[in-house]
Design goal:
This protein is an alpha/beta fold. The protein has two domains: 86 residues, Rossmann fold, CATH 3.40.50; 30 residues, no CATH class. Helix content is 30%, strand content 15%. A four-stranded parallel sheet has the order 3-2-1-4, with helices on both faces. InterPro entries: NAD(P)-bd_dom_sf, SDR_fam. Keywords: Oxidoreductase. GO terms for molecular function: oxidoreductase activity, acting on the CH-OH group of donors, NAD or NADP as acceptor. Belongs to the short-chain dehydrogenases/reductases (SDR) family.
Amino acid sequence: MAPASFSVSGKTAIITGAGSGINFSFAKLLLSRGCNATIADLSLRPEADALITEYNGDDSRKPRAIFVKTDVTKWPDLHHMFDETVAAFGSFDIVCPGAGVYEPHWSNFWHPQARPRARTRSRATTTRCSTST
């Protein structure tokens, strides 16, 4: 049995990190398939700016793209991103959380809380943390 196709035509997507790189390419693909897009990022590379200009809503036969300056590490920015999307498109159907977030080498991802090398407030007073290897 062949897999059912999934159409994004007429839908709306929010793509974080779409100002450049692979998420830009994903936004471009969605727009080419008839999907409106909110491009949420800290800034736009020239090609992303050109994409927003191309899909600015002047041609009613094309989907529309908007840019919302968003720092995904800040809750107010995320709320603003969703609010702007709903204001522009009425709703949204797809969320692609693709923004890359830099984590220092001492991040808790590699050293969970309550481990000697974790840098957390709860452990900071009882454990010395070292950044040396």
